[in-house]
Amino acid sequence: LKISLKDLAQLRDALATPPLAVSPPQLWHAFEIVESLKAAEPPGIISSRPGEQLADLVSLVRHAVAPETPLAPYGYDVAVNYARWKREKTESGVTFTGEQLEWLDRMAEHIATSLEIQRDDFEDGWFGQHGSLSKAHSIFGSQLTSLLAELNERLAA
Question: Is the pTM of this model over 0.85?
Answer without folding.
Answer: no
